[in-house]
Write a structure and sequence with these properties.
- It is a single chain.
- It contains 7 helices and 20 strands.
- The protein is mainly beta and 443 residues long.
- The protein has a domain of 309 residues.
Length: 443
Amino acid sequence: MVVSLNAKRLGIGLAATLAAGSVAAADIPRADVEAWLAAAPATLPAPGAVLTTADLESVRALIAPGYFDYVNHPDVQLEIQETGDYQAHPSYDAATAAYGSKATLNAAGGMDGYVAGRPFDPERFDDVTPEEAGLMVAWNHVYRWQYFGYKVDALDMTYVMPGAATNSANDKGVEGGGTIDRSLVQVYHRVYLNHLTMLPDSAYKVDVDGSDTRYFKDFISFVEPFDVAGTTFVVERALDPNEEDQVNSYLPSQRRVRRLSAKERADNFMGSNYTLDDFEGFSGRVMDYEWVYRGQRQLLHVADSKQEKMRFSGTLSNVAIDRWQVRPTFVVELKPRWDGHPMSAKYLFIDQQTQNPVLALTIDRNGNLWRIILPHYQRAVPDLSTPVRALETSPSRWRGSIALDLKTNTTSIARATSPTEFPTMTEREIERTFSLSRLTEGR
């Protein structure tokens, strides 16, 4: 028996109908997305500028189609920050220099010879086929600099419906239009086990059970509200790119640990607009998709949030009240190999320096733009007091994401309300955190 992530089966649903008076957006065909992809801004906004509705047309090419209409709101102001230079930790650069020429793509799309660091030099992208370059971008993203992985002790998932704003007194960062339908709170922690550039003396891996076969493990546990408290997931990603994820869940109502099926990764996660493959724009398995490199693109992106806790304004409270940068990205198009997948394609925009996702545009089976996902990040103040603190403060920190569903005209906000940390993990701490026995402990 499997346990679905689908909202209905979990008993977690959004409102059955949209609020009275709301107007669903007209379909945006894929051809319009392609036209936007080919467009370029006449000028770039200057650092220090604050863009309002009067200025937005000049940066339309830097804002996702479909999303532009939500940004174009009288209350929205986009503070423009100078594009930052976000270098990876020196250990990552050293591993890239030592092994960057070792990795090769095999016929199936996986990698042979990869050890640590960035697998592929971006200068190669134009010298190989678009399919090969797309896979190179994907693998560079998967093996970006993330130290041991990050944890957030309090992460809100808030679902916003259209309708009259009732957000003046909420503590969820929802300060624009729409109304909060539901909010959940979870704990999240990911730990990487292998290909760790800061561990050259231990063959780039930690000495724990599973590090020879697992790349990372995710721990997700919901603590609020009462009807989902204790719902917990442990996700294990294999080093073998052809091996399915192992996803175990515990639902308190059933009091048993269940294994999720692979196809349930395409279900709405806990009633939100995200799937398990959508976190941070893309968190799926590379081999589940066909990849094509589509070139380079500049986008407006929150790469270094100024907020302690992210805040959102706009028509449906899905525009960050924050500072935005013009970031250069690599663009890839991916198509699911599974014919039953609800999407037909996804455009993924990857930051050229950090390898973090900047934007994801999902196309439905009718060829229309469906979902827009925008991850938001923050840079920590570098702490060079010790080598360990230098490592822990070096990666870009995820602070929030927006998932806009154009079909339902709803927004799902995922937002860290506690610090995003990249803690140094001992072998004992890793074994304790990701033991399956924790599934039934609750929090």
